[in-house]
Amino acid sequence: MNPLLSHLQPYPFERLRQLFAGLTPPVQLSPISLGIGEPRHATPEFIRSTLSEAFPALASYPATAGTPALRQACAGWMQRRYGIALNPDTQVLPVNGSREALFSFAQTVIDPTRSPEPTVVCPNPFYQIYEGAALLAGAKPYFVPSLAERNFGVDWRSVPDSVWARTQLVYVCSPGNPTGAVMPLDEWALLFELSDRHGFVIASDECYSEIYFRDEPPLGGLEAAQRLGRQDFRNLVAFTSLSKRSNVPGMRSGFVAGDAQWLKHYLLYRTYHGSAMSGMIQAASVAAWNDEAHVQANRDQYRAKFAQVTPVLQEVLDVQLPDAGFYLWAAVPGGDDQAFARDLQAQYNVTVLPGSFLAREFQGVNPGRGRIRMALVAETAECLEAAHRIRQFIQHHH
Ligand SMILES: Cc1ncc(COP(=O)(O)O)c(C=O)c1O
């Protein structure tokens, strides 16, 4: 067996199963899960019908680079959303959701023979794929905390130069999972300057970019680069996905965009890996990227839901409306996130994810400890019911 596989950490939901083992929640309360961040709003009808009309595409092998129509649709969306003109032939590549892409991109970038100790810098807490991607590529993750004191901004300035010097890849997650924080332009400027100095690549995970609560849409990585005069997007690749934007997590569709040189290497890797997107999915993806009305409606639905649920939870929890994303990242009374999640499950049949499962201890501190992540993906009524139960749980039992 590849020995690196043994370095992988259990996924947060495995740890949750262990934490909940043997619990018997009250049967009169229906189970409500705020645990998994899976979109649950309805898939738009036009995406379903486009998909069902695309059966003829099954008769041929799709190209790894995708159809020109799909690359054009992705580039067109980037133009409308961020005001960026990308070359659809060299600066855009379809991927089967951002998860596999965030993983496989590391396999393309990391040179494990370059010493000393190839390093991948990740936010902490973080989306667990970053860590697995680093480990299987033969690199070591280096975790940078994002704490409430800094409005959940990742503290890039805390990373010593000696670490930057061996860094080959940096994951940025903006809007962040689980914090919902959006990285501002000056932090991008800092990272670009560090990237120029040390030669690392930036993978910008932007899969929550279309669900936001402020007037201004979240700044994208390529948008930041363009504003700072970096027209070639050197050493920068952005990862975008339809899963959350269009409520199609099962479609597995996204794209990457940015540095043409890196996308060329990445396309080579993907060709051998065999990760071409099905022609049917490509057809439905073109329709999805070309429509914005359903995205606006989806965002409105999240906004209405968060506006109702957040104040109920604020009566008992230290929690803010995030910049973006579909999570609430709350501090729990008493500070023991695992006990809180376990007792809430046992007494009220509501599932939340302990923050410590989403972060790694670094210099003696787990920056997820004392917090829980609540995914408000179910319909408003169900999320509200969960919020009322959490309020009751804290008022009566905690
Ligand atoms: C931060 C982050 N990045 C990427 C993904 C992957 O999404 P997908 O593969 O559906 O595009 C997720 C999914 O939950 C996520 O939370």
Give a description of the structure.
A seven-stranded mixed sheet has the order 2-8-7-6-5-3-4, with helices on both faces. The protein has a three-stranded antiparallel sheet with strand order 9-12-11. By secondary structure, the chain is of the alpha/beta class. The chain is globular. Helix content is 40%, strand content 14%. The longest helix has 22 residues, at 293-314. Helix 3 runs parallel beside helix 11 (279-289).
Search tags:
40% helix, seven-stranded mixed beta sheet, binds pyridoxal-5'-phosphate, 12 strands, alpha/beta, 398 residues, single chain
User: How widely separated are the two ends?
Assistant: 47 Å
> How much of the polypeptide forms β-strand, as a percent range?
5-15%
Q: Which structural category do the helix and sheet elements fall into?
A: alpha/beta
Widest beta sheet: strand line-up: 2-8-7-6-5-3-4
Number of strands: 12
Radius of gyration: 21 Å
Q: Give the H and E element order.
A: HEHHEHEHEHEHEHEHEHHHEHEEEH
Mass-distribution shape: globular
Mean pLDDT: 97
**Residue runs with pLDDT of under 50 for 5 or more positions:** none
